[in-house]
Automatic annotation (TrEMBL):
Residues 1-25 are annotated as: Disordered. Gene3D superfamilies: 3.40.50.970, TPP-binding domain. It comes from Thermasporomyces composti. This is Acetolactate synthase-1/2/3 large subunit. NCBIfam families: PRK05858.1. GO terms for molecular function: acetolactate synthase activity; flavin adenine dinucleotide binding; magnesium ion binding; thiamine pyrophosphate binding.
């Protein structure tokens, strides 16, 4: 029998059965496990496919670490990879990004009180993005509750509005079923974060409890409303100028192949959004994202799949441009509560997006006379070509200081199809959204509708782990960089090389320009010009350089991709090159 970690009261090693399966219940596919609360929680998380725990230390949650590393024996490989970071937000952003990239809920562990409160923005971001995520929080011991223990705070009421469920696990024996339920809930439609806190005395207690052997979680394939899909096919057949919008849930619900089949079979123009980017390969004739303004403004039918009708889609108002009437809108979503209630919809269907999309193809095959959309395609392609022509001038701009678009002109040809592209910033990232399109699905990480700055380093940590052989590039505004750059330390300690590119315009550009526009002046939007972010990275053990001229960009980016340590390219960009915006999303 293995020797356990030292007994905490005596310091002496003791025999343990921790982590040893002592029985298997064939019928329920559950096993009896003896161990402390950490052992039980980690065993359940492992059954759900979790391989990494992101955390920042606190004694309230030590048993979870003890279980992750396999106790004092430290077996190799350990039961779970433990990645310790420099700010709880980074731990949760990393777990969120893991959920988005792997489509298995990510796991973050944070200590009681400030560990949980530091996580709130990242949990809110996961909630608004529908990202599968489980956050386990420490909690002051239950036997002293109300006496003023260190870091005593009742967390679930804080987290209830930004989670699918937030609750306290009262006893260690309840822990396996609570963690099992948390992973099931987080990973099923409509996905999102689940929070549990566990009183310290309970987490450290030992018990024998059944834990699931393997996960049967995830949303089942389901039947969907075929009558409504037949109506949608009819609406499409009657439409002269339809547009299909594919959003993040197409990827998160595993419906990317079915979505591509819709594009191929229907021959409908398509615009992609969020993690829907990459579902339609770059250069596909139906992909008209670059003509998005014309497509949305001139369409007569918008078929929106797997994304809310929020500010990113003009709150669901399509049509109306150049005398076009308002368009009809169809909303196809992964869960009934995702159907937009603020828009007068022509139709909506909720459920398994693969079933919905294959059902739509089947319904379309019943359409007797498919319409001719060739003139509409030609109009959109002309608009996309014109936009690309305009882009070319910016992408090759030879200005001093460097135009941010030139960074992408140099980056684009260096990107592999499966490169993971992470955006964290304002205007610098908006330019990226315009000029970069991923070559494969599941390769684009942005903050989603919550728009929280500071997710970049957490996402980079997650991406390097989830996609060990892909390029990982993080595009950081200089303002955003300040929120998580110290986690280069984590990248270095855990040997996770990624390329970071800072668009260093010395300001909070996305706020500076709007304030000037509204007030004729701006305050609180300036940063120190020319800050050497490369020096910070070098001090933390990475490699870095500053780029001042356009011709230096390509070689610097190549050095960054080739580096075997985290590499930052600090690009001094033009503070006056504002991203041209038609909306501020408010
Ligand atoms: C946590 C957080 N705080 C504030 C904001 C508001 N905000 C949105 S964009 C932006 C400016 C970003 O500046 P920077 O990262 O330097 O990118 P730039 O626009 O200069 O390219 C700010 C402050 C936010 N989205 N998230
Ligand atoms: Mg900036």
């Amino acid at each position: 029998m293995a020797v356990s970690p030292a007994d905490r009261s005596t310091g002496a090693p003791r025999e343990r059965s921790t982590g040893d399966w002592t029985g298997v219940d064939e019928r329920s596919e559950r096993e009896l496990l003896e161990g402390h609360g950490g052992d039980l929680a980690v065993a359940v998380a492992r059954a759900h496919g979790v391989e990494t725990m992101f955390t920042l230390t606190g004694a309230h949650v030590f048993p979870l670490y003890d279980a992750a590393v396999g106790g004092r024996d430290r077996p190799q490989p350990p039961p779970m990879r433990l990645v310790d970071v420099r700010h709880e937000a980074t731990a949760v952003f990393a777990a969120e990004a893991t959920g988005k990239l792997t489509r298995t809920p990510g796991l973050a562990v944070v200590t009681a009180g400030p560990g949980v409160t530091n996580s709130v923005s990242a949990i809110a971001q996961a909630y608004q993005s529908g990202s599968p995520l489980v956050v386990l929080g420490g909690r002051a011991p239950s036997h002293r509750w109300g006496s003023g223990s260190l870091q005593e705070l009742d967390h679930p009421p804080l987290l209830a509005p930004i989670t699918k469920r937030a609750r306290t696990v009262a006893t260690v024996s309840e822990l396996p079923s609570a963690v099992d339920e948390a992973f099931r809930l987080a990973g099923s439609r409509h996905r999102g974060p689940v929070f549990l806190d566990i009183p310290m005395d309970q987490l450290y207690s030992r018990t024998s409890a059944e834990v699931p052997l393997a996960s049967t979680a995830g949303s089942a394939a389901g039947d969907v409303d075929h009558d409504t899909l037949a109506e949608v096919a009819t609406l499409l057949a009657q439409s002269a100028r339809p547009v299909l919008v594919l959003g993040s849930d197409v990827w998160l619900d595993g419906a990317e192949a079915a979505a591509l089949e819709v594009v191929e079979e229907l021959g409908v123009p398509v615009v992609t959004n969020g993690m829907g980017r990459g579902v339609v390969p770059r250069g596909h004739l139906s992909l008209v994202s670059r003509a998005r303004g014309v497509a949305f403004g001139r369409c007569d039918l918008a078929l929106v799949v797997g994304t809310p009708l929020d500010f990113r889609l003009n709150f669901g108002a399509f049509g109306g441009r150049d005398g076009a009437p308002p368009a009809q809108v169809v909303h196809l979503v992964d869960a009934p509560d995702q159907v937009a209630s603020h828009v007068d919809l022509a139709a909506s269907v909720a459920g398994d997006l693969t079933a919905i999309l294959t059902g739509l193809v089947a319904a379309w095959r019943q359409v007797l006379r498919p319409p001719d959309w060739s003139a509409w395609h030609a109009e959109l392609r002309a608009a996309a070509d014109a936009a690309r022509e305009q882009d070319a001038a910016l992408l090759t701009a030879d200005t001093d200081p460097i135009h941010p678009a030139r960074v992408y002109g140099e980056l684009l040809p260096l990107l592999d199809d499966d490169a993971v592209i992470i955006g964290d910033g304002g205007d610098f990232v908006s330019f990226a959204g315009r000029f970069l399109s991923p070559g494969a699905p599941g390769c684009w990480l942005d903050p989603g509708p919550f728009g929280c700055l500071g997710a970049g380093l957490g996402a980079a940590i997650a991406a390097r782990i989830a996609r060990p052989s892909s390029q990982v590039v993080v595009l950081l505004g200089d303002g955003a960089a300040g929120m998580s750059l110290l986690d280069v330390d984590t990248l270095v300690r855990h040997r996770l090389p990624v390329l970071m590119v800072v668009g260093n315009n010395g300001c909070w550009g996305l706020e500076k320009h709007p304030m000037r526009m509204l007030y004729g002046y701006d305050v609180a939007t300036d940063l120190r010009p020319g800050t050497p972010y490369d020096a910070i990275v070098a001090a933390l053990g990475g490699a870095a350089e500053t780029v001042r001229r356009p011709a230096e960009l390509g070689p610097a980016l190549r050095r960054g991709f080739a580096s075997d340590v985290p590499y930052l390219v600090n690009v001094l960009t033009d503070p006056d090159a504002a991203y041209p915006r038609s909306t501020f999303g408010i």
